[in-house]
Design brief:
It is built from six helices and seven strands. The chain is of the alpha+beta class.
Length: 214
């Protein structure tokens, strides 16, 4: 796909992310795999003011275009693409419920079968590290190998998928699961969960379930 079209899709995804209540202000970032690296949102530009010329190409070796500044989180976006060949888009945000669970430093267990959308039977929470650092990138790389969606302790969430539409869909699902989980934690410290056997069956069914790409 042409760079301009992908850049337009990135901006559209950013605006939808905000419209769906997943993000606030200039926090969060979106990228898509492109040629030998990725296209990613710039740093410090409000989504409503973003245009296609603002989108930054970052090569796999972390070099990027002159006079352009990629998101401060570009390192962990690259780490996602290096870790998995089956993902082509990454969405990061500070959705309230997912971030609240990350502050508790908890994984989201199999409280609902939709957890299987991640490819696993839980949503892992990776350890805290300062944003934009190699340390955080390393934690993300480890976590995304395990699951297509992860929580970042005291930070937010990442959702990665085959395209931007599915990555955003997955991010919405994770925020919904986090909201469910927090409601359950207000009632009990140990919510009931589906068994590994039950979740294994659902994970297999997700090969042909979930949002269909256009």
């Amino acid at each position: 796909m042409q760079r301009k079209k992908l850049s337009e899709q990135i901006i559209e995804t950013c605006l939808l992310m905000e419209a769906k209540g997943l993000n606030q202000g200039t926090s969060g970032n979106v990228s898509v795999r492109y040629e030998t690296g990725m296209l990613i949102t710039p740093t410090g530009v409000a989504y409503e003011h973003m245009n296609v010329d603002d989108i930054v190409f970052v090569d796999i070796d972390e070099t990027f275009e002159e006079r352009k500044s990629p998101s401060s989180e570009y390192k962990f976006h690259l780490a996602c693409y290096k870790s998995r060949n089956d993902i082509n888009a990454v969405v990061h945000n500070h959705a309230v419920n997912a971030t609240a669970v990350s502050i508790l430093n908890k994984n989201i267990p199999a409280v609902h079968y939709m957890v299987a959308a991640t490819g696993k039977n839980y949503v892992p929470c990776v350890p805290y590290a300062t944003f934009g650092t190699e340390e955080l990138s390393m934690y993300v790389e480890q976590g995304i190998k395990e699951s297509k969606a992860i929580l970042l302790q005291h930070h937010g969430m990442i959702a990665a998928e085959v395209n931007l539409e599915k990555a955003l869909w997955l991010a919405v699902e994770i925020e919904t699961l986090a909201k469910m989980y927090l409601k359950l934690l207000s009632i009990t410290d140990v919510p009931p969960v589906l068994s590994d056997e039950q979740m294994d069956k659902v994970v297999k069914k997700f090969d042909s379930y979930g949002l269909k790409s256009k």
